[in-house]
Design goal:
Helices cover 42% and strands 26% of the residues. The chain has helices at residues 12-20, 40-45, 66-80, 120-138, 157-163, 167-170, 184-196, 241-269, 271-287, 291-317, 330-347, 366-382, 414-417, 434-445, and strands at residues 26-29, 35-38, 86-94, 97-108, 111-118, 142-147, 152-155, 200-207, 213-224, 230-239, 326-328, 351-356, 362-364, 389-397, 400-406, 449-455, 458-466.
């Protein structure tokens, strides 16, 4: 079989025993491809006669797929003539089917040794890996892998879109870069779960590259190698920011509907008795000359006016009938109100500026839009100190028309933002909260949306209307 140097002859049995017991198939074949010798693994994977002799040897090429046979015959001829080691992939007949094998062919005197490694599992693994990568890249959820130290090892396209970091910016860095400054304890707990190999799901907030916040539902699962050693965790992060906003809006709409029913009852059942009380109060006031009583009557009258103002807001909230909507120009509606708004601002020692751009018409009820603008403007005026400025602006963006009312006040506290539009909640000392509540209801009835942007430089209420068809 071999022609070794005589000094190594005592090692030949050991070498032959080693080759015979290799787990991969190994055979020796002459330049014509006839099998001269085969180890146990080769006989198991590619069954041969009990004894293989050169005179009646099986042909190695009888196991080779026709598509690979010609190339391998050429390789055998070249290698047996003394060429260097060669590696090839070929399909061989085994287990009643064609399987993929990697062949390492080693030249020797008048023969070649061929070592075959089954690539079937590797091919299946590679195909499954490609499929998983394709699924990950096509996913709308951010999918990334973390090692046990929390370093990012993979980063799909959705992760780029959701977080704003390119793959080369994210891979190799700690996932702590996505956390907010106050989330150290949460991140430490997550890292501990990764090292424990735990599966976990939770809702949280992370920050994008531009520092915008994004609400996420995150699921984690451990990653292990074939021997069961923990490598880290796979993470799927679903952007639920819009879903969270929808939940808040649905809760707000539920409150609107509930309170509208209550307002309808109150406006009808309370206002009439209050009108009667007001009438009798005026009659008593005319019958007395006592200055002290007149002062009391004056205070009572003012309080009744305040109650009536609140009831008027109730009536607006409780209005369920369909209002006539027509194509209107926001610029024209606001321009008609300009003298009233400017007079209101001047009385308070403040300023109103208009930036009314021409926009396409929107389908709205003009009277309700006047009420909306009036309420938002008065809220802005009351939120500022002397010489403060309220800016009223109309713009177009894509298929939307935007009305914005911006004040130069001190902004709204973060904990108060979610409460805006709630009946009887107000940041003003004597406010009822009904004015902004009415604004949200008007926005809903006119198929618009209301967003609030606030900070230390002031607050902007942005009402977005769809373009009239």
């Amino acid at each position: 079989m071999f022609n070794p140097n005589p000094q190594f002859k005592h090692r030949i049995p050991d070498v032959e025993n080693f080759l015979h017991n290799l787990t991969d198939p190994l055979c020796a074949a002459n330049p014509a491809g006839n099998i001269l010798w085969a180890n146990a693994a080769f006989r198991r994977v590619f069954p041969l006669p009990a004894a293989v002799r050169p005179a009646d040897a099986s042909s190695f090429f009888s196991y080779v797929h026709p598509d690979n046979s010609e190339r391998l015959r050429h390789d055998f001829t070249e290698l047996c003539a003394g060429r260097t080691v060669l590696s090839r992939e070929a399909r061989l007949w085994s287990e009643e089917t064609w399987l993929n094998f990697a062949l390492d062919i080693y030249p020797a005197v008048d023969r070649c040794y061929c070592l075959a490694r089954d690539l079937t599992r590797q091919k299946i693994f590679e195909e499954e890996k490609l499929q998983l990568l394709s699924v990950a890249e096509a996913s709308l959820d951010a999918i990334y892998a973390l090692d046990t130290d929390g370093r990012i090892r993979s980063w799909n396209k959705a992760a780029v879109s959701i977080f704003g970091y390119a793959a080369e910016e994210a891979i190799g860095r700690s996932f702590r870069m996505l956390a907010l400054p106050g989330q150290k304890e949460e991140v430490d707990a997550v890292l501990q779960l990764i090292r424990q190999g735990a599966s976990y799901g939770y809702e949280t907030v992370r920050q994008r590259k531009n520092h915008d916040l994004v609400s996420l539902f995150i699921t984690m699962a451990p990653i292990r190698d074939f021997s069961g050693v923990l490598l880290g965790a796979s993470v799927v992060a679903r952007d639920i920011t819009s879903l969270q906003k929808q939940k808040v809006e649905m809760a707000r709409l539920d409150r609107l509907n509930t309170f509208a029913e209550l307002a309808s009852v109150i406006s009808h059942e309370v206002r009439n008795p209050m009108t009667t009380i007001g009438g009798f109060l005026q009659m008593l006031q005319r019958r007395t000359q006592d200055k002290k009583q007149l002062e009391y009557f004056s205070i009572m009258s003012e309080e009744l006016k305040r109650v009536n103002a609140i009831l008027s807001e109730f009536i607006t909230i409780g209005r369920h009938k369909e209002l006539k909507q027509e194509k209107q120009s926001l610029k024209s509606i606001i321009f008609s109100m300009a003298p009233l708004l400017e007079a209101d601002a001047a009385y308070q020692g403040k300023i109103i500026k208009f930036s009314l751009n021409d926009t396409v018409d929107v389908l709205v009820n003009a009277n309700e839009i006047r009420q909306l603008v009036l309420n938002l403007t008065r809220n802005g005026l009351e939120a500022m100190e002397q010489n403060g400025i309220v800016q009223i602006k109309t713009t177009s963006k894509e298929n939307k028309v935007i009305l914005s009312v911006k004040d130069s006040g001190h902004g709204i506290e973060e904990e108060d933002l979610e409460k805006l539009g709630t009946a009887f909640f107000s940041t003003k000392e004597n406010g009822t909260g009904l004015g902004l509540y009415v604004c949200y209801e008007i926005v809903q009835r006119n198929n618009a949306t209301l967003n609030v942007i606030t900070g230390t430089g002031g607050t902007t209420f942005m009402v977005t209307f769809p373009v009239a068809g």
